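Hi team, as promised in this morning's meeting, here are the two structures we talked about. I've kept the exact order from the run log so nobody has to guess. The first one is mostly here for context; it's the second one we should focus on when we meet again. Sequence first, then the predicted structure tokens.
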Amino acid sequence: MDSDIKAIAWDFDGVLNRNVVAGRFVWSDRLEEDLGIPVQTFQDGVFDERFLDVISGKRDLKVHLEEWLALRGHTVDASALLDYWFEKDDLKDPLTLDLLERLAERDILQVIATNNEARRAAYIEHRAGFGERVSHVFSSGRIGHAKPEAAFFRHVVETLGFAPEEILLIDDSARNVRAAEALGWKAFHFTEETRGKLHSILGL
């Protein structure tokens, strides 16, 4: 790892959390069987154009779900759906979790930089336990901007007090990687093909 790197910013979904397989969020595989909600119906209805406002903190996720459930005539409570979603979506990646824990023994700051709204960010911190593993959880819902927006990355830089080139982003989105690099960050594109190289990149 470059000696000038002082902080590592881990993306969450698809990196620390192995919940994305071939572009599919695997937590929803039993959604219809368990709650009677067809997966495609859920994806089309919930992840619509308004979901960008959810991710950036302008619209509450629970309200978003309540309105969709009422529109579709589902009797599932929004809070119960959120609990189900977050618990089923808690699929820590053994590889990256091991690297994160090994890096904790070194003098390097580790944070999470994720496109998640405030409710799931709180789950990641407290229920999933990452609040004890990293120094800060930067989430789009709290910041008001989502990756790959420059404002997201600038917020992280300003909060940490490091120069952009002193921060390494590990992200599964090529767009996010390019955006970070354009702002002077170092970045690693984490994919199924590159995940095996992360040990050497981090010097572990």
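And here is the second protein, the one for discussion:
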Amino acid sequence: MQSYWMQTTGGQTALELRDMPRPEPGPGQILMRVRAAGLNRGELIAGHGLQAKGGAAKAMGMEAAGEVVAWGADVTGFQTGMRVMGRCPGAFAEFVLIDQREVMRIPDGISWETAASIPLTFLVVYDMLVQQGQLKSDQWVLVTGVSSGVGVASLLMAKALGAKAIGTSGSEAKLERLRALGLDLGLCTHAADFAERVMQTTGGKGVNLIVNTVGGSVFAECVRCMAFEGRLATVGYVDGQLKAEIDIEALHAKRLTLFGVSNKLRTGVQRAQGVPGFIAGILPMIADGRIKPVVDRVFAFEQLAQAKAFMEANQHLGKIVLAGRP
């Protein structure tokens, strides 16, 4: 089979399409034929911070959708040809292994491309908004960098949960498209200058939950936007700024909660903990259309380099997907 690999050296990335043996499922694993796989900025953008600074080449891709081909020992409940999706390392390949605890059935009517945009992104958002963020109906959420894959998913899930949403983006055109998806207030800015508008919009109370996809350059401004007992989730740092000022007085007086969301250091058991709740609480909203994942563009399997360049150009809204090999 063919599989994409990436070597990172000195902050530069090189892609390589390799011929590899088809993997064999071990205990607790299923083998899936990949029909589509989602791109994720943390893996692909040089200097993003989540990306390794060097070392051995690694198989690329982190989430995919496809058909069950085979399974290992101790795996039950699957049939050959079953349509499934899940988080899985090495997803930019013809076949990939998935931990059975991560596997989710694809709802009827959902395309391969849409399904491939769900597993990692929406599970991360579920962690931020529901598991840790405790977002409730009628609360306010602020999403910095709202036009990104995680940003759009955060908006869609927040609205489905009955919350009100504010988002920042450097593109007024993207914000206009997101207003049609339920964005209550779009602020066109790349700068840390949005707290005053946020406080005005929320009647001086501030927002209950913040999803910061941008990084340290807006962290202090985000804190200034927080309501009493507000929560701030850090999920990315595309600005490359890994340090930021923390207002200790506000943290103390407002009883604020600051938390991070990442899969990097979690064990398989820890990553899988949110899957049952997501399947029960969020997947039905995707199945019936209350949440409609946004796929900006689909690239052919041979076009990963072009897909990566398109992501680096930051022109997309929502997710970029790599189609499976024909």
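Starting points for discussion:
The chain has a mean pLDDT of 94.
The CA atoms of residues 131 and 270 lie 12 Å apart.
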